[in-house]
Amino acid sequence: DFSQATVVTLYLLPELNLRLKPTLLQMKPGTRIVSHSFDMGTWQPDTEINVGGSYGFFWIVPADVRGRWAIQLPGQSKAALALEQNYQKISGTLTVDGRAHPIEEARMVGTEMRFSCLCDGGKRAAFSLKVAGNSLAGQMRGPERSVAVEGKRL
Question: Taking all residues of the chain, what is their mean pLDDT, rounded to a whole number?
Fold first, then answer.
């Protein structure tokens, strides 16, 4: 049982990495995984290195953020964030006042979610959020100011 590990190193054949992948993905978000020579199939590494023909792969277990979230934005009624997730890659829409805005440059790094969106008036907002179970909190940075943001999973 290595469920409490914060770092896992692997030097296994590809089929064993693939069999172990579901267990690794259930580990605490932020757990680091390093594999010598072999990847995890469809789970793309966060970093890949090649030194003299030897490959190394590095992943950070992402938090599961799939689904709908209610977000409180300052000066706004509640907004809704709908997310899809493929390992550390996320996509979705931020709906504010009934208008959907696709999120861009979206990524999970452990429990940290980052994305931006082009909101009303053509102004870009960048979000940096920390996920803890069914809650999230962080900052929204716009062209004029940075404000605190909170949310809950629906």
Answer: 95
Note whether 103 and 131 are same-domain residues.
yes
CA distance linking residue 139 with residue 60, whole number of Å: 22
Give the C-alpha separation, 83 to 104, whole Å.
12
pLDDT in tens, 65-84: 999 999 998 776 679 999 99
Question: What pLDDT, in 10s, does the model give residues 32-55?
Answer: 999 999 999 999 999 999 999 999
List the domain range (segments joined by +) for residue 42: 7-60
**138: β partners:** 129, 149
Q: What's the domain count of the chain?
A: 2
Q: Both tokens of residue 145?
A: 């100011």
78 domain residue, yes or no: yes
Closest CA to 98 of 78, 118, 115: 78
